[in-house]
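Data card: per-record layout.
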Amino acid sequence: MKTNTEYTILWIDDHWSEKRDVGDTSASAAYDNLCSFSDRLQHSLGAYSRMIRWVKVIAPSAATAMILGEKIDFAIVDFEVPSVDKKYDLPRVIDDIIGKCIPFCFLTNYPGGVKIFVDLLSKEKLSHFKGIYTKELADVSRLGSCLLSFFQIPSFSIVHLSDLHFSSVQNGSTTSLAGEQVLLYEALIDFFEKHKSQFNFDALVITGDMAAKKPEVDLQIAREYIRLIAEKTISLKNLERMFIVPGNHDLTWSNFDALQISSNPWKNYVDFFNAVYIGYDGAIQQLDGWTGSGLPATLTGPGLSWRRELSYPNIDIIGISTVNASETSKGNGLVTQNHISYIKGKWSNSPGHFKTRILLQHHNIMPVYSGSTLDKRTILENPGSILNCLSACHCNIILSGHTHFPEVHIQEAYKRNQTGLIVSKPVICISAGSTGNVFERHPNYFNILKFHSLDPVTKTRKLSINHVQYISDDGKWSLCNDPIDLTLSPSQ
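The structure for this 492-residue chain is written out next.
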């Protein structure tokens, strides 16, 4: 199945010519009708029309040149039976199309006559033939559904881990992982091995807090296990499909128990980032603020932000560091205007309707309450600004962690201006819970997100959010019953 972000459709019809003789009203009417049909067809595709490049030609020589010289994904061939001999050598054009294995359909006002021609085609040629469509309004949606089914956006799955909190234990002169966590992560590796064929694990996302209390040593242990997790999910040959952002435990602290703030919050994380991406040379250069010789000791703005696009799975992801590494913040999250400008600069001027756009950040958008009391340790400052920004940029999914609980929230913004009430696109906020923290009295979780194939009729796709829980008594990870199923619109 084709997974490119743009498809080229060749549309062959001599009425595309805008050169008409004076007084030739029939040619003018044919051209206007064709343009009207084209407009309705693109409208029927909705936001997905932006993934198509239309190439409209009028002459057989031009069609042949396009077929032989470019990568054509689909051909629409105008076939008007009474004038077919005058227009072009139709069998030759069809031979050119089939010779390049290009699927094609006929567009006509004479479907009965076209069927006679189709019946004469060989079985080999019919294998590329996708139907006869008229230029009537009723056939617009039928042709649109044909194109969407052919250019179907494939399904894919994302493993979403967060708050792994690898905790180092000093044993004389050696450092190792805490015993309880060894069992947990061995079971996690076993889970991935057993379920890889079921989910196919197309991407791996980690939304921060790889470290527990001492990043300098915790992150050294974390990188070994994370590379093993990558090997068992996406494979080490596909490290461009692994996406990581830092959490407050990775940057803020030098010693969490003593509440000591790191004097160089970036160094340990950048060393970890370099080590975990060995084999993928382009990773570190993607960090905003990279100078070629490294990152400065002190960064302002989105210094650890990055953007990465993949053609398969068809995703466009931005990761930002929401860690407010100041002595007074104690790990709270912060979205600055620099973050907003960074996201807008990457996404505002590029179409995102046919890609799945996802923002990664450590801090959860939603605040956490203990009873009626706000847990100030989990606060993300300025959440409204990031929600408005993402909605405007057609990014409708946020993956995060920090709160240690798996949650899904759907946020919509309602605004009123001079023209009336405006409802923004919903933003789906998904938190993974804590994958590896074994020192608190709550279960461990991670998420598997399954993005299903596009439905060509409704032009929507389903997102299934599967929670996976660690059953400590059994020493196993288990898929929870009843995944959360959401329907995503074309802009999602």
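Known properties of this structure: The chain has two domains: 7-150, 156-488. The first strand starts at residue 7 and ends at 12.

See the next section for split statistics.
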